[in-house]
Amino acid sequence: MDRRLGKAITRLALPCCMAIAAIALAGVDFVKPTSAAAAQDTGGSHGPALRRLNEGQYLRSIEQVFGHGIRVPGRFAPPLREQGLLAIGEAHVSVSPSGLEQYELRAREIAEQALALPGVRPNCANQGNRFDRDCAEQFLGKYGRLLYRRSLDAAELAGVVAVSQRAAATSGDFGKGLQAGLSRLLVSPYFIFRLERAAAAPDAMGRAVLDDTSLATRISFLLWDAPPDEELLAAAERGDLREDAKLAAQVDRMMASPRFEQGVRSFFFDMFGFDQFAGLVKDQAIFPKFNSELARDAQEQTLRTLVNLLVTEKGDYRDIFSTRKTFMNRGLAALYKVPAPSAGVEGWAPYTFPDDSPRAGILSLAGFLMLDPTHEGKSSPTIRGKAVRELLLCQPVPAPPPNVNFSIVQDDSNPLLKTARQRLIAHQESPACAGCHALTDPIGLSLENYDGVGAFRSHEHDAAIDATGTFDGKPYVGLLGLSQRLRESADPPACLVQRLFEYGSGRAVGAGDNAWLETAITRFETDGFRLPALMRRIATSTALRSLGPALPEPGTQQANLGMLYRRTK
Amino acid sequence: MSRWTRRNMLRGMARGAAVAVSLPLLDLFLDGHGEALANGAPIPTRFGTWFWGCGVNTARWFPSTLGKGYDLKPELAPIAPWRDKVSVFSNFNCILDGKPNLVHWSGVMATLTGSAPLKGGVTGGSAEAPTLDCLIADHIGRGTRFRSLELACTGQSGVSYSMRAGSTVNPSEVDPIQLYRRLFGPEFADPNKAGFTPDPAIMVRESVLSSVKDDRDTLMRSLGSADRQRVDQYFTSVRQVEEQLGQMLQKPAPAEACTIPKAPGQMTLGPTWDVATRTHDVMAQLLVMALACNQTRVFSMALSNAGSNLRKAGEPVSFHELTHEEPVDEKLGYQPKATFFIERSMETFATMLKHLDGVREGASTLLDHSLILATSESNFAKIHSVDNLPILVAGSAGGRWKPGQHISGNGDPSSRVGLTIQQVLGLPVTEWGSGAMQTSKPISEVVS
């Protein structure tokens, strides 16, 4: 495997004459990270993370703790993407007053509904207004542990029970008291945020590590994007996660659970920027087939394709660029001009694009092609090229310099510049722009046979589209040609490993993580680029529990885990 | 009527017939600048920010003459009926002084936070300090049910120019129906209703939030400084909502101008021009009544994001794209398609002024009792220039601000406007901002 880790691992901005031009123009060093970013990149101690639950995680927590059927009201704050991932942004956000209003509202309504569920409401709650301390302690202790993802200490429990007691006195109803106590747990920062704690003692190597329940939480959000269940929590509390075999057994159990599919979906939702589907709009006068349903279907199709290839069939990650197997429903069939499936689960049926079709791999699906919230009436080769670089290859593209004059650009009524390629070439004649556009545009322009929502076209404004491109110096033609180049490249698998680790640990990798990352990438290759094997390795790694830089596993331990893994296969 | 107090007598008259009553006002019932409602309650001062994206055409927006009675250029023409209530500020700059010009971000953050930001760009970024609406809400917003309201008109809750320092925006209300429910839903207490009984359920809620604060100390101990700041913000929010609940346990002060608006119907949301301006109009009316009914004193409204995605239906390119891609028409001297949005943005701001000025309060209007800071992130968006930022301030803060002037800053930092507003609204600040944006020089011409 041709390994060019430098790009993927150190996250340096690409060498780019545009960045230099920007520096010259503005007289500032754009590449230099701000002090906060620099602190994160030292590869030193990272400390325990504090991550706000996102909307999906909140909803899944409620469902996992209380069961189905609870309606969760209110708006969630918009997510923040930092250094390529929402999972990293979640470690940088807080709760605004209007956000707290929503959490408070949710807490009350969830508590009320939960206390009405026969499986949740304790028998001891039905005794009128007499305050029963044992009942309250048992009930709030039980749900507090599940919501906080750890047991409450005595003082915490006493505080929550006191709220219950006051509320029971005010309302004259013990059940209402329990409801207030539950509400108190739900509005606590220990529920709304995933607060990690350091273990009291360092590990055998003398390194600072997470405590057991914090590790359990990292593992379960990595694998399920949901909190630990009772079994994992109990295992963590017993100290099982410090024993390799028991840790591996928990991880294997979790990966065998149907919830693992949700975990994989959540990860790719984040890695591929699917949050941009929220509120995605295209102009219906220009793209009559577009509506919010089609956008939802496009997202669903790509996620189904990924889960099928990577989880169900345990396929090679690199095949995401070449697989012709996907899932189809009526709306997408019309967009792709293929026969609509006659039946299927929720309107979806497995579908394989024929060999002569212009569709293969996830780049050819609408889930990639229409995902551009900044252009509602056309496709943008620059944005598409940037998406390939940043999302699939982990190569950040610098932002445009502030003082560019765009006056020659993309006047799409110019009779001399009919296609996007012609207009962008005119733009690239400006040296300040040329550097970065050379990174994005050759990729994006080769995708121009697919319009702003992903329908195939051969012409733009009566001019034939020239879909030639080069990737890493190698020429190709069209989206399928690009996909083939990506299939052969070492960068997408390296990017996946980097993103998965960042997703699990909630921080961007830094120089101190390079050795671990390099080893992990090699092992991913040895594993035949199988995603479940990679996730298992990360979930069981000492890197995931480390509070310092991720260091390579001690050889013996890793070999044992490797053997264990082969045995379970 | 049980007692012949002055307050009751005036209230009786106000609710009765249209009889002209002339009574000398007693100073006791006036606020510092001489105005009180007929029921005797002093009229509060309000503050709001109103944001539009992608700047202006300098020659078509800024007046040529300074002082009162300034001339109105085509792009400012829509505010003509309120010219004497609107001040225009020109040649106030975002001074970068070595910091990057973060496109569609630096300009607005400089004016609203007094500091050029270090991180951000066309999709947003972080703030070095809290925005003006937060600072002012902390000062004048504590006595109302909502310390402030954030609103956006394109259906995206992340569109908000209200931030505490850091990366967390105060997300906007984008759906008029939800805004209505939040303001005038079951928890709304009509300030003009006679009876009032505190709701025990509110007391329970208050005690829940009060108990959450017990988590603070142990939580803070386990965190690094960056995370401590985030937790601090969380607990500040807890305290604010607790205070809001506390307000709901007290009988609201009467508000004469308050009439409960009709609930809005379902409407489409999104960034096409007609849809966004319709949303703006409905939300503006709800906002004005929220102010008149003392539900809040502070707001932050965004017509769109800074890299404006407003678009005419059926047109492939947005306002933001137009500013960069549309050639300047040689005959006209400007970009006609992009300029459509600049002119319409000012018309939309004028409708906000109309709604505010349409509410009578005492001898004047809600607008007169407010300061509304309207601004954009660029001067000329095509080249992302942040010198000569377009800044308007409408209203007169109940007589404490001399309205209707055009004032040139001669290249001073735009933070001078924010400092002046804070001082006029009674915040104890003598200097504001950081780096080259720091200033201790209020704009004395507008202070009365």
UniProtKB/TrEMBL annotation, chain B:
Q: Please give the InterPro entries that the UniProt record associates with this protein.
A: DUF1552 (IPR011447), TAT_signal (IPR006311)
Is NADP there in the keyword field? no
- Signal among keywords: yes
Sorted alphabetically, which keywords does the UniProt record give?
Signal
Determine the domain of life of the protein's source: Bacteria
**Could you say which residues form the signal peptide?**
1-20
The name of this protein is DUF1552 domain-containing protein
Q: Taxonomy-wise, where does this protein's organism fall, top ranks first?
A: Bacteria, Pseudomonadati, Pseudomonadota, Alphaproteobacteria, Sphingomonadales
